[in-house]
Amino acid sequence: MDAFSWSTSLLALALLGVAALLTWLVSIILRNVSIVDSLWAVMIALAAWVYALAAPQTGPREVLVLLLVSLWMLRLSGYITWRNWGHGEDRRYQAIRARNQPYFAVKSLYLVFGLQAFLAWIIAWPLMAALAGPEPLGWLDALGALLWSGGISFQAVADQQLARFKADPANAGQVMDRGLWRYSRHPNYFGECCIWWGVWLLALAAGGGWTLISPLLMTFLLLKVSGVALLEQDIGERRPAYRDYIARTSAFFPWKPSP
C-alpha cells in the first residue's frame, strides 16, 4: 500500500474502534454482547465510505462498490437485528461470558468488540483497493459483481427459508433440510463467502490482488471459527436428528445430498 492507502486505512481502523467502543458501552447497559453481530456489516460499510471519501478520484467502480457494500450492509445488518430482537444474548456469547468470568463486561471490549473491529478492518481491505484503483471497469469487475450478486441472493433466500421454517410451530424440534438447506448445512455462509470473493475480484481488477488475505480470512472464519465449526461443535448432542443431517448433507458447498 502507498502512503495514501496506509493513512486512510489507519483512519478507518480508528473509526471502527470508536464504533466498537460505543457499541460496547451499549452492550454493558443491555447485558447483551450479541449486538456486535448487527455491528459487523456496519463497520465494514463504514470503512468503505471512509475509503471512498478519501479516494483521489471518482468513477464508475466507486459507484459500483459503494452500491454493493451498502446493499449488503443494509440486508445483513437489518436481518440479524430483526432475527435477534427480543431474544436476549445468543448462546454462543453466553458461553464466552461464562468462560471469561469475572469481569467479562470489561474483557468483552477486546475479546468481542475490539476483535470484531480489527477483523472488519482486514476484511474491508479489498474495498479500499477497489475504491482507490483508477483502472476502468472490465471483465473482472463484471465477474466480481456477478459473483457478489449470486452470493447475496443465495444468502438472502437461505435466510428467508430458515426464518419461515422457524416461524411455523409445526417445525419445532425438527431440522431444516429443505430448499437450499437440502444441499448445504450452511447455505447462508456459502453465500457470504461468495460475496467476499466477488469483492476481491473487484479489487483485483483495480490492481489490488494483494488483498487476497480478506476472502481467505473470511472463508477461514466461516468454516473454522465463528461459522460452521462453532455452530456444530455440540449440536449433535443437543439435537440428535442433526447427526443424520450431517451424514447426508454437505457442510458448506452446495451438493447433492447422500441417500
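(the above was protein one; protein two follows)
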Amino acid sequence: MTSSPRPRAASRDTEAWLRDLRGEGRARDRAILDLRDYLLRAVLVYLTRHRADLRAFDFAELQQFAEDWAQLAVLQVLDKLDAFEGRSKFTTWAYRVAINLAAGELRRKRWADVSLDQLRDQESPDLGLLADTGAIEPEQVAARQLVWEAVGEVINSELSERQRTALTRVIIEGVPVEAVAEELGTNRNNVYKIVHDARKKLRRGLEQRSWGADDVLALFDANGEG
C-alpha cells in the first residue's frame, strides 16, 4: 500500500498540530518531523538574514547551528506543549520558541563544552569553558559550581542509564538525534521521548534542590542577564 505524503507544516491548523503531537504512532512521528523541518528553516533564516554578527561564519557552519538548535527547539516545544494558550497560531508560538532558543545559545555557548565524563563523575566542569569568569562576580562563579553539582547529582541518581545517555549526548554534547538513536538501538522519535522524560526529571530534581529553571539560566548568562 502506498503511504500518504507527509503534510507540509502550513497544511496543519493549530488544532491538528496539537492533536498529532499529543497523539501516538505514525501521526505523531510525522508531526515531529514536520515540526523539526519547519523550525530548521526558521532558525536558518534567522541566522543567515537577521544576524549580521554571524557573517564570519560560512553557510555550512550556520546550517549546523540551525540543525542543532532546531533539534533542541523541538524538545522545548514538546516540553511546553501543555503551556500553549492558543493566543497565536501554533506555528507562530513554536517559531518564537526556536528563535528565543537560538538567540540564547548565541549569548551563552556553554553546554556543548562540558564533557559527559565530568557529569557522570559528579565533577564540576571547568567554568572557564562556560563563560568568561573574569566578567562576572566571584559569587556567581560559586553559584554556577553549585548548579553543576546539583545537575550531576540528579543525572547520576535519578535518571535511568538510557535517560542519562540520551540527555547528555543530545543536550550537553550536541550529538545529532539520529546518531544517539543508533547508539541506543532505537529510532529518533523514541530518543525525543527519552530526552523529554529525562528533562522533566532533571527539572524536577533541580526544583527539589531549590534551583528553578530561570535561576539556572540567569547564572549561566555571561552578561548576567536573565
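Reviewer note on protein two: The first helix runs from residue 14 to 22.
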